[in-house]
Amino acid sequence: MNIRINLERLKDDIESLAQIGRDPQGGITRPSFSKADFEARDWLKEKIKSAGLMLGEDGAGNIFGRIEGEGKTIMAGSHIDTVINGGKFDGSVGVLSALECLRRIKEEGAAHTRPLEVASFTDEEGNLVGDFLGSRAFTGLLNREMLEKGMTQFGTPFSEILDQTPFTIESILEAQTQRPDIEAFLEIHIEQGSVLETENKSIGIVDCIAGKHYRWCAFIGKASHAGTTPLELRQDAFLGLADFALKSTQHVATEHYGSMVTIGKVSVRPGAFSIVAGQADFSFEFRSTSKDTLEKLKKHLFSLAEDIASTRGLRFNSQLVDETEPVRIPSPILDIMKEECAKLGYSSLTLPSGAGHDAQILASVAQQGMIFIPCLDGISHSPLETIEWEDLEKGANLLLQTILRLAG
Ligand SMILES: [Zn+2]
Averaged over 288-309, what is the pLDDT? Predict the structure, then answer.
């Protein structure tokens, strides 16, 4: 059916949602279960009701808007939480485009057999306990211990934040029992990179989503006087880290080009002039679209860390924070998206996603598909996040046509 989304309405929705959680730095700070997030949740629920969709919410605070049908559900969505001082398109584009698609289907009385649902998942950004709290609860991939003992990014226990909400650990763990049978989950998202812009394409059709491995790590040596301890007698934890940072990056660049390795946070103790570093704590992550490569990296990088530690008289400690598996987008959905994109006359590029998304988590219970639209200069998780509205219109129209094809 030849229906198209209403860009003006979608634009209005994105701009109105972006008013909630505005911070003094000109960005949006709307982590899940914050005051701003609850305001945004109420706003979204009103939108779902006024679109004439059936409003639902599960025990993890995932919000749904449904149009009834027969058989397994076709679901589309993303998240409305943000990082601290984030932008207005990450996540909201996915939820509000899906809402617009369902609104248009309802307005036009477009034929569909299957039930349709828009979904907004809690804490995709991982401000509370690891990434994807909502979609993990929805798919039954959470464990109780992680919820009970989890510390938030804000340094407060997760349970304390939960006490301020209508949700409980029990309700979060039960969210999976409220899930309908899902045929497919579709997500449109900003690329958060600059491939599409460089290639001058409005649409990216994602063929796989990278898996990742996150750890907190430390090299532990001995703090000693910087003036009196000869270089060869030092157990310098900072040098262990520096050596590891260079060698691990070199290994990934030469043996597994296309995979990623990153040390994003470092703290050296005691951290002063005149003292050789006794301990270097750091975050360590690697990502790949290949499961085999992730396994190889896991083995190689941690044995590299052990080797460096023993050569330098240090100890290496690490603790797993989170890991996800890479996901391949199933070919029937890829084919449908490519066909519909060609019919719409939009040029597209097939590309992998280096960032994780709710669609990846949903892969355990449904087929999934992802559409990327460009964001200017690849900037995301920043108040400077910007898109061309025309790209969003194209992406949302492709989402609409894909939903209609899958909905039968
Ligand atoms: Zn996102």
Answer: 97
